Amino acid sequence: MAESFDVIVIGGGAAGLMCALTAGQRGRSVLVVEHANRVGKKILMSGGGRCNFTNTGTGPGNFLSANPHYCKSALARYTPADFITLVEKHGIAYHEKELGQLFCDESSKQIVRMLLDECAAAGVRIETGCSVERVAGGDGGYVLDTTLGRFTASSLVIASGGLSIPSMGASGFGYQLARQFGHDVLPTQAGLVPLTLSGTHSQRLQDLSGVSFPVEASCNGQSFRNFMLITHRGVSGPSILQISSYWRPGDELLLDLLPGEDAQVWLREQRQARSAAELRTVLGDVLPKRFAQRLCEAWFASKPMRQYDERELRDIATQLQQWPLVASGTEGYRTAEVTLGGVDTRTLSSSTMESRHVRGLYFIGEVVDVTGWLGGYNFQWAWASGHAAGEVV
């Protein structure tokens, strides 16, 4: 005998829980099914365990999508201020780290607890360790066969996430369901992910693993200024994670190693003020000393500043501000924070997230082709898209 609900949400992550509590508050009977042993796993691990739960500067320009206008409606109707109001209602202390990024003072567990408390108050039923084996029906009547039995609903919400961090249970299940119901799925790939180096570049930098400093990374018309971290396999850090979403193998990727400086003017000043100092010493004052040393061993010939003529200084300045980083690939979904691509938004309503093909079917969160920058934007998309669907399911 099947149990019947108004709404079934597949996926107990940020978007799924927000959709469930919103629908429950409208008096809808809601079931959340989550195949993992607990809900909100990605929330728990995010922000180093403190959850970067939103960004106060969130706007459509902070997202990548084949349809860049799609996210506008949901983001406008559920803003960072709306989520902050919910956080404050639950007495969760938070702080701004940088660039509008808001984190819990204590633990990301507080955000999961808040969502669960809201779900409980709204009468939402949550089943963990529940895998969906088959979905049938459509047009306002859905039947789910699961490891916990059969459930039916008039509305079905797919909030199953993307492919990033498979160790936490990520799978392509949502994409399979999308195709089953006639939706196109745009090609997926790892986003917000460390880049790998090989060959000469790797050999020159590998033993500098752990060295970190600010750069401005540029690729395909996008630039991000923040820290870069050299790793055993390549490079990471906020600036690299950000630009990785815009980089494809073979694309030119340039780093400004002295962001905010005019390198040529600065080098001239150093030549005048410290004519006897070697280039590696001068660079070691503004860059990590080990990295400055390696630059001068492998890329520049170090000599006293007074010995450089104008052309040489100009060439060094150009390299410092347009240093080519030849990446060979990414670390893939294993360490990626998000999945680029996903369910094609051209066949979804931007105001309700409902399928244009099948009545009562909704797609929200990371499974959709909307991917945010690093810094709380992806959570805000989860809250906004979840809320948009929860208002109408």
From TrEMBL:
Domain of life: Bacteria
Keyword NAD: no
Key words of the record: FAD, Flavoprotein
Protein name: NAD(P)/FAD-dependent oxidoreductase
InterPro entries hit by this protein: BaiN-like, BaiN-like_dom_sf, FAD/NAD-bd_sf, RsdA/BaiN/AoA(So)-like_dom, RsdA/BaiN/AoA(So)_Rossmann
RsdA/BaiN/AoA(So)-like Rossmann fold-like domain boundaries: 6-391
Coiled coil residues, start to end: none
Co-factor requirement: FAD
A Pfam cross-reference name: HI0933_like_1st
NCBIfam families tied to this protein: aminoacetone oxidase family FAD-binding enzyme (TIGR00275)
RsdA/BaiN/AoA(So)-like insert domain: residues covered: 189-338
